[in-house]
Amino acid sequence: MWYKKYWVWAFVVITILTLALYYGYKERQRMIEQKDWYGWSVATMMASYSNIPYEDAARSELSTYIQLLYIPSRPDRQSYFATNDGKQLVTMDYADNWWSLRFEPLLGAAYYGPVPDRMHLVYLNERDMGIYKLDVELPKEKIMEIRNNKGRGITDLHPDPDYRRDDWGKLVIAFVGDDYITLYLGSTRQNLKEVASWQATKVADRLTPEDVAELYQLDDPVRIEETVNREGHVEPKIKKFFPKLWKQYQAGEWRMDAEHFKMMQTRFPWNLEVVDPTGDWLGEYEITYMNLEHYATLSDRLEQHKKELKPIPLKIRTWVFDKPLQKKYYVEIYTIPTPKWAAFRHSFPTYVGDPNATYLYKRFEYFYPNRSLKTNDIPAKPEEFATLKIILDNNGKMSEIYLEKNGIKLPLEGAYHYYLAEVDPDHGGYYPYDEDFEYFLTEPKMKDLSDPERSREEVWFPRENYLEF
Q: I need a labelling partner for 342 at 20 to 30 A (CA). Which of 105, 217, 380, 381 fits?
């Protein structure tokens, strides 16, 4: 019958429309679910308690040394980032990277998806061979605030698109001393901002034989027993390479803890000012702070940054415009004495416990004796801010640097002018020429307070260029 044919066609059309609506709905749900999905990777850093030249560091660097665990058969011995419903987004089974301004992602520790809800870490600490655990809910809003409000960067105008890309998608975990853990959010261009800190707890004295067999894929009972009972790396290294420190360690006068680093995490109300008698300070800067944070503050964020508390600075990069020469110059200054090799290379040129950093901290503490890590969330009034002032001479060289508040000036005697160069106009307007300009323009005006056993200069100091961004 003719009407049956129309019923068939009607059924086909209705079926197609129904499927289209269903899959359209599913696609919309997927888009809603994934609108805040990003590419993420994980990196780790382990705190350094010495400042050893690069060529000797692999042998004698004194640092926190941990191994993240992931034992498939034991959920309580697994390290991962996860959602609240328990879905593991990314897992970790080792740790890498020393205290550095570079943090390469762990192999295999990357994913595309939502911001993690939780961080679950279980690790072996080589200090005492104990097993430690941290299971915390992450401050997702803060992570996304950093990611979405990064502001302009010094690479934005670079002609090479690979340089312009600066994606904030690295979850960087720093391990300090007595199992104090800080999470940062890092970027492609090695920028870093602090998210939160926690204290891990000890859950076992050692790995069990079963853990060792599965973790290291061993089946020899002798090797398993040797691995279970082996001595950690830290104490033998102190005893062999740091004899004076070893005596202090045995006497209980020194321990590998996080108290000094917590001081460096303290935020104070201060702002930067540069005075150039032959030109104009452009107001923008990029600072490496003592708490490891490293990022640029350019014109779009200057006013907001002036209201914010900041950790004490380690390295200041800024720009001035020389009127007589009509050229833009790059200025780089360190606020404490450092070994020249450490300044010349792209490393973090101080160590946890460095008395030079403590001396600088005391300058800030003088004006703000009640500030500590616990007061970081308490804002300051505009009139409470101090000024870190850098005075340049007619040649663009630093002549003075001091912290000033209410007419009182505290000189930063440990500071020195590391580099001064013209800005290369073909590389985005912020990068300096990296050759034919002088390094180490001035010397610190105070004695280096570092322990010579823990911080030393290279016997042979290379003159290759290590200036990096």
A: 105
Cβ 47 vs Cβ 176: under 8 Å: yes
CA nearest neighbour of 362 among 413, 326, 288, 427: 413
In degrees and rounded to multiples of 5, residue 359 shows phi and psi of -60, -45
Q: Is residue 178 part of a domain?
A: yes
Q: What is the domain count for the chain?
A: 2
Going from the C-alpha of 45 to that of each of 48, 60, 172, 182, the distances in angstroms are: 9, 17, 7, 10
Domain membership flag for residue 309: yes
Gyration radius of the chain's alpha carbons: 27
Question: Would you say residue 214 lies in a domain?
Answer: no
Answer whether residue 168 is part of any domain. Answer: yes
pTM: 0.89
Its domain, for residue 125, covers 40-204
